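Hi,

Apologies if this is the wrong queue. I'm a grad student, and the batch job for NAD(P)/FAD-dependent oxidoreductase from Paeniglutamicibacter terrestris produced an output file that my downstream script rejects. I'm not sure whether the problem is my script or the file. Here is the sequence I used:
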Amino acid sequence: MDNVVSAETYKLDALVVGAGFGGIYSLHKLRNEFGMNAVAIDRAGGVGGTWYWNKYPGALSDSEAFVYQYSFDRDLYTDAPLRNKYVRQPEILSYINGVVDRFELREHIRLETGMTGASFDERTGTWSVSTDRGITYEVRYLITGLGLLSATHMPQIDGIESFKGTVVHTGAWPEDLDLTGKRVGVIGNGSTGNQVITATAPIAGHLTSFMRTPQYSVPAGNRSLSADEEKAYKEKFDSTWEQVRNSSVAFGFTESAVPTFSVSAEERERVFEEAWTEGGGFRFMFETFSDMATDADANEEAARFIRKKIAEIVKDPETRKNLTPTDLYARRPQCDSGFYEAFNRPNVSLVNIKENPISRLTEDGIVTADGTVHELDVLVFATGFDAVDGNYVRVDIAGRGGETLKQHWKDAPTSYMGIATSGFPNMFMILGPNSPFTNLVPAIESQVEWIGEAIKIIEGSDTQWIDVKPEQEAKWTETCTEIANATLFPKADSWIFGHNIPGKKPSVLFYLGGLKNYRAVVSEELKLGFPNFTTDSQLSVGV
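Support response: The file is valid. Your script probably expects a header line. Output copied below for reference.
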């Protein structure tokens, strides 16, 4: 039971904000493994984090199912069904709910409860966290799993209030919205827009894609797994997760060590064709050749192959031109279940809004610069998120000396290891700024396990809190920037650098050094007893 201080204040050991993969594992570790008095809150009406909100048609993981789940419990892994190569949103949500019930966490989760503010008391070493339910939590440890992709971005379009149809963002999809037979407009063609368009095209009366920048996409290759395949995956539990933790992107395959131009043109074509047939965006970028993300000529070889495929698939010349990228293949790798094929359907059209911008919305639909009225029943914004720091700076979080996180990050969001930020003691982030750019569940587990060990050490010592040294946070930012600049990724306008948010200064938001290297860094920090942190008193317990 919570320790009630007053009718509206609860005193706990720890508060976990967020009930996605990170929040659920954190709550399990704190309560079930450490016996701490901890509670999780989430503004959603159910658990699942991103997968609770993103109920749009076609929502699918782009990590393969056998590595898009927890690895901290072998029995949990063995008991979870493994039916398809990739996992659909309803299956992911069902899985997370099953984990919550399996580990008896539900009664310790407060849903429809959002954090509205938090402040740190340096004298007592505690956080006071306010919520939109009028409840305040006083805690020693604040663990924030606010979501990497959960602060939705809605572009401003003149006249949107006059539109008589339905306006929806993919990141807040209502369960009762049926697009069958409707005139549907989709703005955006990143991973989400790609999935929405592909899934909606066969059922819509008419679908119009409003596309600014065409992107590279390869087939997902999703398919059912046989009983023998499922059995084999589960029997390889140890070797699978050993490989994942010692890899770069952590997607369950061995990254290529073969340079693109070390083989013949014929061999390159064969490798690309094999990867196209197998499917998977990360496989295509990282399993084929070793230098696609770092060498512009190698990158162009892969881009040329995908452009050739688009030319073979898309029948209408004008549509083909508008769907064909000409820039670097250097955004988050996309995969699809028939995206390009969808534009061959007679009920699907494409508007190039770079050449013919959206002027305004009327009660009937979108008006483009050429004066055309595109009549719509439903307008879907697949316009992404204010990634990484969006949910943090929308809440007043004040650390030492009253400095807010928004002030601390006024130039760019920063952290040390994606877990801690200077001036905010005992606030541990899951997937904070400059966390690993990998398959997210293994990265989440690595961070939650570090946070758990750190809390255990603090609890066994004379200190009340730890706080990362400012100079170490700056060094981590420099490291992340140096690694990013050694790749081609910063050369493409992308949400992974914040380019999708008007007025937001682009910055490095991820550690691109790979999961193996990241795990070595966080392990060393624990092993050496927090050398890059300060404390309110000297830690007396070694690691």
